[in-house]
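Please, structure for the following, as tokens.
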Amino acid sequence: MCVETKRIIKSRDVVFLEGTKKVEGVHHNRPLPKQVKHVVDEVVNDDELVKDANPIFLNEGLAKGMEGDESTSNSSSEKKIATPQDEGLNVPQQDGRRERPQKQCKEWPCDWWVATKEVERATIAFSEEPQTVEEVLNCEDAKKWEMAMQEEYDFLVVNNTWSLVPLPKGRKPISCKWVFKIKHGVHSEVECYKIRLVARGFTQTFGVDYNETFAPVTKFVSICCILALAAIENMEIHQMDIKTTFLNADLKKKIYMEQPEGFTQEGEQLVCKLHKSLYGLKQSPRAWNQKLDVFLKSIKFVRSDADFSGYVAQVGDVKFFIVVYVDDFILVCDNKDKLLQMKEELSQKFEMKDLGDLHFFFGMEVERDCAQRLLYINQTGYFKEILKRFRMEDCKAIRVPLDPKTKLKKNENKDVEMVKVPCQQVVGSLMYAMLCTQSDLAYSISMVNQHMVNLSIEH
């Protein structure tokens, strides 16, 4: 902005005379670009230009309060700006545009990144979720966790999940552990404290404890297609959740497991002989999927050939769609009464929780405008969590993820500092968002993935 005329001049070729108190003849004797650049180079070095990227006003009163004013003004007051008239040059009047020195790229502050293990610990600390039974007993919400643990254990016993038997000779029991999770809502509020007894499936032996393990899950493309169809035809979209999903499936193999920590009964090498599939077992997802598939087909649902976790049924003029992702169900129907009947039938077969209209699914917030037949999906909460995890809450937002003209070069040297940067975790977190809602991140992620083996600060 011109101080005297109060006019705003837009230009890319601008040089800020840092520390200059007063410039005579700003409007009548404008210096040439090359001469201005020469003078500025004498006054301020490149490092200072990079450091002080904020604009400096030429007026003395407006320049007060800026860092480095006194030091730079003393050094620059002795310099005289050369003009074309002083050197006797007959040049045309300039339009006020001045060439700006090329800004040097600042080095990436790798120091504030921590090692990968420390990032994981920081994430665990941020989630405030205990990792062991000892931490549960010593935390602030110990009573809530103990109550949830007791309820989970009682349910396992009532459901006849196992029976205590002596360990047969030649068999080695698999271990287990308690997993603690705080379930949050749409606005990151605490909904409940969840506890699961998880078997350590990595201790299972192939051919002895399990054989096949494959179980299909729905694709995000299928979810988007179903939601788009429901929005266009103004169909009902509801959500249900199955409690203790894997405990509904039966095991075909004999598996022995150690007794859970905190509920050990004394006896001569007593172990748990599992009758139901448990979280963590390698064959649990497959056993549950097989049981659910048999039930849905028995009530006239047909599995989709394009997605084995999608089911379709049509009774008269009524159309049903069910999308399954392990224990989460999305139910779509064009008749609300028939949909309620279907939910009741599912609740009679399995212990389910009715979540009503679809609002929050896999970290995705769903907003619907039935009048306009529109449906909006966003991951605002997920992105906030990512930014907080990787210490980028204060970063500036941009509309384009990456400049299309950007060309990344292969890093020939091994950068020791980049070992501290959890690049794989950042890219992995962004890939999930790319698959769900942010498809515009695909190009940026593909560019970085090409150099994931040996990243540099530029990457």
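Residues 141-378 form one domain. The longest strand covers residues 190-199.
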